[in-house]
Automatic annotation (TrEMBL):
The lineage of its organism: Bacteria, Bacillati, Actinomycetota, Actinomycetes, Mycobacteriales. This is ABC transporter ATP-binding protein. InterPro entries: AAA+_ATPase, ABC_transporter-like_ATP-bd, ABC_transpr_LolD-like, MacB-like_ATP-bd, P-loop_NTPase. Transmembrane segments: none annotated. It comes from the Bacteria. It comes from Skermania pinensis. Residues 39-276 form the ABC transporter domain. SMART domains: AAA. Keywords: ATP-binding, Nucleotide-binding, Transport.
Length: 281
């Protein structure tokens, strides 16, 4: 955990970007090099409604998310970003196609198995924080393990809390915390269970630029320091520029991809998508 930006510093997208081949991060480097797919969608179709009112939100999506990578999903409004993330995270069921988290095929799971998979292997950070207002920050962070009847790993919990700058806020309730602090609590809650993958649906959408920078620095550090795999949906090119890779959706399909993105290169691609929508075949 040396040589990385403090949690409070807004990340410089260029210097914050990965690779970070530190001797202490051998596991992370091995994961990134091997490009093991932690999550995978194959021929994914999602329809809402039926007949004349049917909306095809996902139209044959094929995408993989490699271990130890930070990916941003972007695209025009209504292109299917949230639908894709919700199907990948087991929050919504696809109409057809396959979603795998590691070796587990989500479409083969019943409701109880899906609930257990979401609890044990997936972390989620929402735009609206989704903290329980009557619980303290610490109780919110340990809630998933409490519900599962498990003891949180105290050493890991302490490390996450320290790294996220929350040590002196643990006894506060969400209403006593700023938006940025609340989102850091939500990040801690997601990270403390060591999920296979952490999904963020517009995780900086409700934050000012300083708090947004803090949360992005945390997600970046989670990848670089903890070897976490992170996927976010965002409309903000500066947020997406903190990722290793940007995947672009249009009209329910993956239409482009950028590696080592900058805010400018992302803006260029987005302009292209908004000016010439992809025609359905
Ligand atoms: N519950 C639903 N019922 C019917 N249609 C839906 C539902 N949810 C989403 N859709 C439609 O599916 C399409 C994809 O929606 P989705 O929310 O995934 O897009 P998005 O790219 O996340 O949009 P935004 O950037 O505006 O949040 C849109 O046409 C939307 O209107």
């Amino acid at each position: 955990m040396t040589g990385l930006p403090p949690a409070a510093a807004a990340p410089d997208p260029d210097s914050a970007r990965p690779a970070v081949a530190q001797a202490t991060d051998l596991v992370v480097v091995a994961q990134a090099t091997d490009l093991v797919a932690v999550a995978q969608a194959t021929d994914l179709i999602k329809d809402y409604g039926s007949g004349d009112t049917r909306v095809r939100a996902l139209d044959g999506v094929n995408v993989e998310f490699a271990a130890g990578e930070f990916t941003a999903i972007m695209g025009p409004s209504g292109s299917g970003k949230s639908t894709l993330m919700h199907c990948l995270a087991g929050l919504d069921a696809a109409s057809s196609g396959s979603v795998r988290i590691g070796d587990t095929e989500l479409t083969a799971l019943n409701d109880d198995q899906l609930t257990a998979l979401r609890r044990d292997r997936i972390g989620f950070v929402f735009q609206s924080f989704n903290l329980v207002p009557t619980l303290t920050a610490l109780e919110n962070i340990t809630l998933p393990s409490d519900i599962a009847g498990r003891q949180a790993d105290r050493a890991w919990l302490d490390q996450v809390v320290q790294r996220l700058g929350l040590a002196d806020r643990l006894n506060h309730r969400p209403g006593e915390l700023s938006g940025g602090q609340q989102q850091r609590v939500a990040c801690a809650r997601a990270l403390v269970g060591r999920p296979a993958i952490l999904f963020g649906d517009e995780p900086t959408g409700n934050l000012d630029s300083r708090s947004s920078g803090e949360v992005l620095a945390i997600l970046r550090a989670a990848v670089d320091e903890f070897g976490q795999t992170v996927v976010i949906v965002t409309h903000d090119p500066r947020a997406a520029a903190c990722a290793d890779r940007v995947v672009f959706l249009a009209d329910g399909r993956i239409v482009d991809e950028l590696r080592n993105p900058t805010a400018d290169s992302i803006l260029d691609r987005m302009r292209g998508l908004e000016e010439s929508p992809v025609a359905r075949s």
